[in-house]
C-alpha cells in the first residue's frame, strides 16, 4: 500500500514528533535556552490552534502539491473519536491534518520538502 493511503492518524502521530523537533530546534537555534521559555514558545507552534493557523496560511499561499492536498483533506475529514481538550473539533482536525502532512513527507523521505514547509511556518512569527 502506498504511503499516502496509509492511516492518516498514524501519519499524524509521526508528524507530531517531527514537527515538534523542528520547532524546538528552531527556538534553540534562535537563542532560547531556558526550558520554561522553550516550552512556552513551542506551545505557540505545536498547539492545535497554532497548527491550524499555519496550515491555513500554507493553503492560502497555495504551497501544496495535489498529493499533499489530498493527504491534508483526508486527515482533516477523518472521523475521529478523540475529543479535543482545549479547542474546537475543526481546529483540532486542521492541526491533525498538518501533522499528517509532515508525517507523510518525513516517512516518504522528502526531507527537503519538510524543510520548505517548516521554514515557511517558522518565518510566520
Explain this structure to me?
This protein has 125 residues and is mostly helical. It has a single domain, classed as Ribonuclease iii, N-terminal Endonuclease Domain, Chain A (Orthogonal Bundle). It is 72% helix and 0% strand. It has six helices and no strands. It has helices spanning 8-29, 35-46, 48-60, 66-77, 89-107, 111-122. It is globular, with a radius of gyration of 14 Å. The mean pLDDT is 92.
Distance between the termini: 38 Å
Assembly of the depicted chains: single chain
What summary fits the major beta sheet? Answer: none
Please tell me the overall pLDDT.
92
SSE arrangement, N to C? HHHHHH
Q: Number of helix segments?
A: 6
Number of strands: 0
CATH level-two architecture? Orthogonal Bundle
Task: Tell me roughly what share of residues is in helical segments.
Answer: over 70%
Q: Find the CATH topology.
A: Ribonuclease iii, N-terminal Endonuclease Domain, Chain A
Radius of gyration: 14 Å
Strand-residue proportion: under 5%
Shape verdict: globular
Amino acid at each position: 500500500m502506498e504511503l499516502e493511503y496509509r492511516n492518516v492518524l498514524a501519519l499524524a502521530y509521526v508528524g507530531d514528533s517531527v514537527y515538534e523537533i523542528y520547532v524546538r530546534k528552531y527556538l534553540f537555534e534562535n537563542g532560547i535556552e531556558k526550558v520554561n521559555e522553550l516550552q512556552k514558545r513551542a506551545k505557540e507552534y505545536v498547539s492545535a490552534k497554532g497548527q491550524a493557523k499555519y496550515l491555513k496560511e500554507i493553503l492560502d499561499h497555495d504551497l501544496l502539491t495535489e498529493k499533499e492536498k489530498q493527504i491534508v483533506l483526508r486527515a482533516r475529514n477523518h472521523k475521529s473519536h478523540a475529543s479535543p481538550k482545549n479547542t474546537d473539533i475543526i481546529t483540532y482536525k486542521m492541526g491533525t491534518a498538518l501533522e499528517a502532512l509532515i508525517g507523510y513527507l518525513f516517512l516518504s523521505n522528502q526531507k527537503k520538502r519538510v524543510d520548505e514547509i517548516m521554514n515557511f511556518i517558522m518565518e510566520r512569527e
